[in-house]
Please model this.
Amino acid sequence: MQVFQNKGIEKKLDRFKAICKDHGIKLTPQRLLIYEELINQDEHPSTDMLYQRVKETFPTVSFDTVNRTLLTFYKIGVAGLVEGTGNPKRFDGNLDKHHHFQCVKCKKIVDIYSDVYDHIPVPPEIQNTFTILNKTVHLEGICTECRQRE
Model:
């Protein structure tokens, strides 16, 4: 298991532990490692990507355990979920307000911070029909690296 010196990561871990405690979720070494792996990268990993990393430390961990753990993290609000057209679920450890761009060729996901996107108005007919809890923008296209290869 990794030891973190970064105070930002320590703060995230403290928040994670408190939220798990509030939800009655036991902090196993596997859960801690899955969360640490999630917050220590910006590639928005799929379940399989995290499973491959976690099984290096815990060879007996199952894919299903990693998947259920990630879905639980999403449910309790310590992880985000990024779904693109026809792609497997990808998870996000960055809970700061942001949006996503996903390359349709290489599947890379990039965080986008935009005040314009943050403040897109919800039309009144939607506000009157639904209770809006979250607004995010998901852009799809071709990234610079893939465009240069063509």
